[in-house]
Amino acid sequence: MIKTRGLTKTFTKGKSTVEAVRGVDIDVREGELVALLGPNGAGKSTTLRMLTTLLAPTSGTAHVAGFSITDDRDAVRRRIGYVGQGSGAGNNQRVRDELVTQGLCYGLTKAASRERAEELIEALDLGEFAGRSVSTLSGGQRRRLDIALGLVHRPPLLFLDEPTTGMDPQSRANLWEHILRMRRETGTTIVLTTHYLEEADSMAERVVVIDKGTVIADDTAAALKNELASDLVVVTVADAYAATRTAEVAERIASVRDVTVAGSSVRVRSHRGDTTIPELLRETEAVGVRVSAVELSRPTLDDVFLGLTGRSLRETQTVA
Ligand SMILES: Nc1ncnc2c1ncn2[C@@H]1O[C@H](COP(=O)(O)OP(=O)(O)OP(=O)(O)O)[C@@H](O)[C@H]1O
Q1: How would you class 88 by CB atoms within 10 Å of its CB: exposed for 0-12, middle for 13-18, buried for 19 or more?
Q2: Ligand 1 centroid to 46 CA: how many Å?
Q3: Which of 44, 195, 197 for a ligand 1 pocket mutation test, highest count of atoms within 8 Å of Cβ?
Q4: Does the pLDDT at position 121 exceed 70?
Q5: In this structure, is the dihedral angle defined by the CA atoms of residues 63, 48, 46 and 22, taken in order, positive or negative?
Q6: Which of 17, 37, 46 to mutate to test the pocket of ligand 1 (most atoms within 8 A of CB)?
Q7: What whole-number distance in Å separates Cα of residue 17 and Cα of residue 27?
Q8: What ipTM was estimated for this complex?
Q9: pLDDT grade for 9, boundaries at 50, 70 and 90
Q10: What is the per-residue pLDDT across 303-317, written as a single tens digit (0 to 9) for each?
Q11: Predicted model pTM
Q12: What structural domains and CATH numbers belong to the chain?
């Protein structure tokens, strides 16, 4: 559905140049739900704007829904839906009329536009406020309308640029429910950008991590966490001496990657925390060390980003 090779975008203004995207290769298969994740200014939106033909690349190639983004812009545009960061909806029209107008813009007849509007009102649960003016909608309701507007022409591929930024957790969960239901029913391929690590982790089938204009990792969230980050096992013992003995034992366990001692605690990084714990308990008992507590933490996508870049994604974010 999407194939990019060496895609770049450099913005030049006077003497200053910004290399926003520096050679991005992305492949997305039909029906996939892929999240582009990265800190502010990483180049996610610029990549999305190139893929949606809103911005011409400086170099490289990209095929979207079977067509080149530079040679067949109109063909690409007919096959994609794009929901940008701002709301695409006007303020004074009523929700139903907004959808009908969008259908007419895409060349549907009046009757077909009305029919499509009703389908989308049903699909995105807009019925309750379909007769209200857009300006009266809440942020979450408005975002649902934006997505409906992006789907009017039945695109097989939908781009969502930060669909949930700024929403409270309940509205985010509700919007996701609607996105996933729509996807189940239509099989639409979805590519989105997000700041929310948990969202990329739990919703996307694949996470493409972008930093400084390049793709630095691309896999399922589970595989990224497994390969690029470690489980953390924190073992508490009686005193610093027992902690040193525990660390010595831990270092001999095959699944352990790294061990640090802090007072009477030992922090053990392992790529299999679940099997490290019983082994560690057996070995500490064998050398006469009593363990008073053990805590296992699974890695997050932030640990993946930290491992790749030495920076935390959370700290670099300024989410609106
Ligand atoms: N029109 C433009 N002119 C000059 N520089 C730009 C332009 N658009 C984007 N940039 C710069 O390109 C870089 C990438 O920006 P982009 O908006 O793609 O990042 P992003 O990953 O989407 O960030 P965010 O998460 O904050 O939306 C940034 O340094 C940004 O300032």
Answers
A1: middle
A2: 6
A3: 44
A4: yes
A5: negative
A6: 46
A7: 28
A8: 0.96
A9: very high
A10: 899 889 988 887 765
A11: 0.85
A12: 2-225 (3.40.50.300), 230-298 (3.30.70.100)
